């Protein structure tokens, strides 16, 4: 029998949403001079180990949560000093766009007192964790929430952490440790994009029943040390076009996305590519597109002569306002990227995730206080949260950007970008209609017979690199001899269906070399190298048969990003 612990609130995931919720809960408790027990569980080896983002942080939510964040030493040191936007027309040419023609949502520089910041989101989360612990929050890193617990009436009771020390064949090893049950009045789920417990909640409570289809992108990022003479602290570069092809006429290829290059502190740059996962060509490899992107003169100018020091990948929920689910259910709320609060029009989700966590914290505390004052049990489902959310600046911001993603999907980067300029700069996001995009990303993949294989150049070891050396830089590790956390609903589908129809796209959409087709004596088998997994969730999203389910491995498993 598992041991159990009771809290007022349990929070799953120590990202910006979960930690902001934890801090806001304890701030309210201290202001009201009430005792409150709050616990945060985090599957990474430490807070920040699994956090990956560009990242440019808009400090709006942080200003509300900790108005004195500068005095507290928050790791926001580099304000954005200059924005540049490029359209790459081919492998060597580009067009630099004037800021006058860029949707205002993409602007990051305002004035010396009101700019966005280039940050390591992992370090921001580490700092938020320090603030939370200082307020009395208990944080348990290295413990993966593997199971949702329910009361007899179907409401959420809490979560259970995963077992440790179970062999690949399911036997208990000498190191076996049972999971622990964490019970709470309310449980907040902030696992990030495509959380595996979140998927269960969506299905059980029909949270997405009345919304548009969620859409995703795969973000790949590297951190580089570059020569001092090439470094321009505070410079932000965004772009689209080559090597992806969604920048021409409508339906030219339907491979959308864009790149970023941020000059941060200590003579470092963060460089990355975001690839929309609604692409059609099964031969496309987002990882290899990223590697060849770095050879373009716009990026090569800064990277050449530098040294790559870190690598990672993570999916992004980019459906925005139109795909927002019902966020409450009996016993809890989903928040942050778990609910898809990223504002793709800004290419930012940290401030929106933080605000969603703060709103949830305020609703939860209000319910607990009312129950305490009236002597009754707290209400099971916080129905008032919908009203609270709708009255917030978060709702307004996401609503104004509701057409940004669908227009890019329907019209491509040039025509879609022109539409968004008109929508955002002239009509302030209030055009009297809403564009829709309801085809799931995995259903956009077309048969391999409709395309020619893409031949990617061999990495040169200077600007471009192979997958395994990249995974090494992510410090990814999983304990040996444990059950595979990448589960196949049908073990026959990869070879008997996906391979002949699509050339088995898992070989290419995975940015870590997890999946292989091994041929032995004229027979093929599907091999899963779970040790390499970056926990990006691309396989859970893009597999055309929806045959792969990502579940959490043992706690501490996965990447260990030091400064991403």
Instruction: Output the CATH class name of the largest domain.
Output: Alpha Beta
The major β-sheet equals:
8 strands, mixed
Sum up the overall morphology in one term.
globular
* Unreliable residue stretches: 246-252
The helicity comes to 25-40%
- The helix-and-strand class reads alpha+beta
What this model shows, in words?
This protein is an alpha+beta fold and 564 residues long. The protein contains 14 helices and 24 strands. α1 runs parallel beside α3.
Topology at a glance:
Blueprint: E1 4-12, H1 16-32, E2 38-42, E3 56-57, H2 60-65, E4 78-79, E5 82-88, E6 94-97, E7 117-118, H3 121-134, E8 138-141, E9 145-150, E10 156-161, E11 164-166, E12 172-177, E13 181-189, H4 196-205, E14 216-225, E15 235-241, E16 257-263, E17 268-276, H5 286-293, H6 297-303, E18 307-317, E19 328-329, E20 332-334, H7 350-374, H8 385-390, H9 393-400, H10 404-426, H11 467-473, E21 486-488, H12 493-502, H13 506-509, E22 515-520, E23 523-528, H14 538-542, E24 548-550
Helix pairs in contact: 1-3, 1-7
What descriptive keywords fit this protein?
564 residues, alpha+beta, FAD/NAD(P)-binding domain, D-Amino Acid Oxidase, Chain A, domain 2, eight-stranded mixed β-sheet, seven-stranded mixed β-sheet, 14 helices, 24 strands, 27% helix, globular
Brief sketch in words of this structure:
This protein is α+β, with helices and mostly antiparallel strands. Helix content is 27%, strand content 23%.
